[in-house]
Design brief:
about 90 residues; mainly alpha; two-stranded antiparallel sheet; 2 strands; globular
Length: about 90
Amino acid sequence: TQMTVKLIHPIAVEKGTTLAQLAIAWVLAQGEDIIALVGSRTASQIKDTIQALNVKLTKEDLGRIDRIMPKEEATSSYMLDVDIDSKGLFHAKQ
């Protein structure tokens, strides 16, 4: 929501990064079994995305973000609704 963005924006400013880079860094900080799927359409978007690798989030940063937006509530309208079958394969839900 816009309120969430308004509350998280100061963290991005403190880190000297964009909201998009902060979001990517946050996803990457969730564990080694988590990957960030990022779509870029232009060279500048790719460069911007790569800069997210330089954003270092501390435990305190992650705690602040979690208080604003708990992980369980982090969703994207761009994500497909998927499920994992017994063999571990991904299938789009019908």
